[in-house]
Amino acid sequence: MWYKLTKEEVLKELRVDPEKGLAEQEVEERRKKYGENKIPEKKSKSFINIFFSQFKEFLTIVLIIATLISFLLGEIKDAVAILIIVIINAILGSVQEYKAEKTLESLKSYVSPKANVLRDGKIIKVDIEELVPGDIVLIEEGEKMPADLRLIETNNLQVDESILIGESVPVRKDADFVAQEDITLGDQINMAFKGTTVVSGRGKGVVVGTGLNTALGDIAKMLSEMEEEPTPLQKELEKLGKQLTYVILSLVALLLFIGIIQEREFFDMFLTAVSLAVAAIPEGLPTVITILLAIGVQEMAKRKAIVRKLSAVEALGATSVICTDKTGTLTENKMDLVKIVLPNGEMVEKKDYKKQKEKIRDILETALLASSVRVTSDGSYIGDALDVAIYKNFEETYGNKPENLTKVDELPFDSSRKRVSILYKVLSEDKYLLCVKGAGEEILQRSNTYQEENVIKPMSVEDRKRFMEIQDLLSKDGLRVLAVAKREFDEIDERDEWEKDLIFLGFIAFMDPLREGVKEAIEKCKEAGIRPIIVTGDYLLTAKKIAEDLGIDVDSGSTYTGLDLQRQDLDSLDWDSVVLFSRVLPEQKMNIVKELKERGEIVAMTGDGVNDAPALKMADIGVGMGLRGTDVAREASDLVLLDDSFATIVRAVEEGRRIFDNIRKVTYYLLTCNFSEILVVSLSVFLGYPLPLTPIELLWINLVTDGFPALALGVEPPEKDIMSRKPRKLNEGIINKSMWKNIIIDGILIGIAAFVLFVIGSKENINTGRTMAFTGIVFSQIFQALRLSLRKRKSLFRERFSNKYLTLAVLFSLFLQVLVVFTPIGIRFFNLERLSVREFLLTLVLALFPIYLLTGEKIYEKIFKRNINL
Ligand code: ADP
Ligand code: MG
Fold it and tell me: Is the distance from the beta carbon of residue 327 to the nearest atom of ligand 1 less than 6 Å?
């Protein structure tokens, strides 16, 4: 019962010095004893499991039973052949599914949160799994509690414990509290629990429980893991798959029925019907989508975009608006303090700081005191980029830090306050000093005097206007501007009374260079019909200049401020032309997303703060930041940028489009192939011919031509117009109307070609007919894959091998088929007839149909200078 012990007792019990932390060696020993600080997740499916689940399909079971029967009936060779093909099919399917599982699993470990911990007297960052009981942990706003802690220091620390106690009002923590009796979790205000989030303030605590041995662990033990929702595309395909299943099953039943009326051999007919159903029902489609999405996730990870939800991959491909913040995403967030402006308008450039040392001492020192920067053991600075810049410039100018002050309390920064205040006690005198920095409007509103050459003067309305003009002037150059102020008092009053009657000291201006590649990315967006909208907490003029520098046409677009959003009816804004929102509160971000979504846009929104979480959740694609930003924001997002850059979002969009195109291609391909198979069998049955394809052949087609080329189509490189066409409408399904039409036409052409081959060959004998139909349909399907791959390339000839997997798959499938048709083993195994050269050439000529179509399409494009849509 840690909450009943005093801090000292807890530290003693856990044998740790709160100033030094544990020694590494001690950490090792404790880790052996207590294990890793993680809550085990659901076990993933094993390969064997996945393999056997391949046989759960009802039709596959029917097929296997039928095969066993034919085995008993003495058709040993055929039965063995069918079983072998079914098993190879299942193995291939399992390998793919297993790989997809593994990829998705590895996702989870990409963005593993870290904690600041004190060890061997130094503050270091470690993965939270590595924490052990006794570790001294520092926590701050936006972080997730890494373990159960007994707090030993609290600084306005407020924690959201809703995941544990269901109460969403933040709990104010107090390290000095000691309970006298047993109390519930919610009342243990000297404790902090794993998984809860810091809403504001900071604190320090000693780890008392890790992994399953935490309050969260107790719950996790009770709850079963939540399954991931299928993505919209997966759902759509599942539905499509079901519908196709019904259609195909009815058709197959009809064929069987007609076959019986025609007095065909029942068992042959039955086996063929089942094989046809197994081959033609695209039961593998949803899995294919999962695999392609998983591959996409992997590709995006290589490009520094970590997908946290599979559905984000699909939505990315349809993104029409990207709402992006400015600092750190469009700019580097590597600030330098380049100008200081005093209330009298005197401007001091960076190169003159040393020369003007005395003049700027008060403002720079106050700014420093209003910052929080920690220097790590290796000499790097941890803290807000602005604060670090102030710190560095102060050090360069004066060398040492001001002394004779101790920090008492602080009102921390948050994006709605737009300011920071830190309260100090002046040691030599009996008084307090409040140091404030923040957005100009906020500070000037709360100041009633200003300091000029050590004289404090009252601030008139004109003065205030004059100061605002200074801010505008600086902002117009794209500088980020902060106002600095202070206040001295003898007695401290209530916290919310602190920030008033301030003495304004002047402005400090920061330069934040544009990120490399962002300008090009914005350009790309424009071409691709995607609208970038800057949504920033910064000042309008600063943001405007940055936008202009990036090539966004601010003058013909509209811009709004947070105040506009507050005052105006959201409907009255010009949403079609808006390019910039400035001085926006995090809460307003959500309204912006909502409004855009209602207008039919697919919205990506970036965010880094705790209060950005609702907007991130509301967006179609919430984009979190890997470098800066809080755990809370990352957790609420669907996509995390490892490098925080806007350009990465655009690359992810491009990848999303590519994946969608490929899903389309694979679906289109499989449907044309399956349709042609059904057609050739149905035609023969209806017209009273013998069966054109044997069960083994049907299953083989399903394996060889539906399998390898289809997979290879899934990894096609981007099409030529990938970033120059408009975003896809999200409600436009995988297969649209015109695609259905084309699928049917293609299927008919391939199917009829095979049927014609069958009829011609049958004149010689039935086996020759089957061999020709079989070879013809396999070849034309392979060529169809080639056609789908090539028809959206810029240059057919130069890019003919640009998908090397497809080239390999095509060659491999052709090779296998040639092996089957031309080797004695193949001929025996499949019951084929050796084809003469003339017959083979005829087969080839008819099977090349897709290539003729491709040529036609290309010629059409050349003549009419128009792209053919798939
Ligand atoms: P953004 O990241 O979009 O620029 P923020 O919400 O981070 O927006 O910042 C909004 C405003 O708050 C800034 O323009 C600045 O005036 C003020 N501000 C930002 N960071 C600090 C800080 N560390 N200390 C004081 N004020 C700050
Ligand atoms: Mg910011």
Answer: yes
pLDDT at 402: 84
C-alpha closest to that of 472 among 415, 539, 559: 539
User: What domains lie within the chain, and their CATH numbers?
Assistant: 2-37+131-218 (2.70.150.10), 231-300+652-864 (1.20.1110.10), 323-331+514-644 (3.40.50.1000), 336-511 (3.40.1110.10)
Share of the chain above pLDDT 70, in %: 96
Burial of 354 (0-12, 13-18, 19+ CB in 10 A): exposed
Tally the C-alpha atoms within 13 A of residue 492's C-alpha that lie toward its C-beta. 15
pLDDT at 48 over 90: no
Residue 201, helix vs strand vs coil: strand
Identify the sign of the CA torsion 691, 695, 701, 707. Answer: positive
- Token reading at 229: 């929702």
Does residue 326 line the site of ligand 1, with CB under 6 A? yes
Exposed/middle/buried for 121, CB within 10 Å: 0-12, 13-18, 19+? Answer: exposed
Sequential DSSP letters for 726-744: PPPPTTS-SS-HHHHHHHH
- ∠ Cα 502 505 511 (to 5°): 125
- Per residue in 538-554, pLDDT tens? 999 999 999 999 999 99
Q: What is the pTM of this model?
A: 0.85
Instruction: Calculate how far, in angstroms, residue 586's C-alpha sits from the geometric centre of ligand 2.
Output: 11
**How many other β-carbons are positioned within 10 Å of the β-carbon of residue 237?**
25
454's torsion region: left (phi>0), alpha (psi -120 to 50) or beta?
left
Ligand 1 atom showing the smallest separation from residue 586 Cα: 6
With 0-12 / 13-18 / 19 or more C-beta atoms within 10 angstroms meaning exposed / middle / buried, residue 154 is: buried
Tell me, using a 6 A CB cutoff, whether residue 512 lines ligand 1: no
CA 831 / ligand 1 centre spacing (Å): 77
Q: What residue has token string 């509160």? A: 585
Is 669 in a helix, a strand, or coil? helix
Pocket test for ligand 1, best of 323, 369, 386 (most atoms within 8 A of CB): 386
What residue has token string 């079963």? Answer: 224
pLDDT band for 95, please (50, 70, 90 cuts): confident
Atom 9 of ligand 1: nearest residue by CA position: 537
At 203-217, the pLDDT tens digits run 999 999 998 888 888
Query: Cα separation of 181 and 742, whole Å?
Result: 76
- In degrees, rounded to 5, the angle at the alpha carbon of residue 666 between the alpha carbons of residues 663 and 668 is 105
Return the H-helix or E-strand segment holding 853: helix 849-864
Distances (CA, A) of 423 to 52, 204, 308, 505, 854: 66, 19, 40, 17, 75
Q: With a cut of 60, say whether residue 470 has pLDDT above it.
A: yes
Secondary structure (3-state) at 193: coil
386 lines ligand 1 (CB under 6 A): yes
Is 80 exceeded by the pLDDT of residue 867?
no
pLDDT at 42: 61
| Ligand 1 atom with the shortest distance to the CA of 438 | 26
Beta strand pairing call for 621-625 and 639-641: parallel
Q: Is the pLDDT of residue 803 over 90?
A: no
| Residue pLDDT, tens place only, 250-295 | 999 999 999 999 988 888 888 888 888 888 888 777 777 888 888 8
Give distance in angstroms: CA of 410 to centre of ligand 1: 17
Q: What's the number of CA atoms in the CB half-sphere (13 Å) around residue 581? A: 28
Among the ranges 276-290, 387-401, 853-867, which has the highest mean pLDDT value? 387-401
CA of 57 to the centre of ligand 2 (A): 53
* DSSP structure string for 786-812: HHHHHTT-S-TTTTTTSSHHHHHHHHH
Question: Cα separation of 342 and 365, whole Å?
Answer: 14
pLDDT at 225 over 50: no
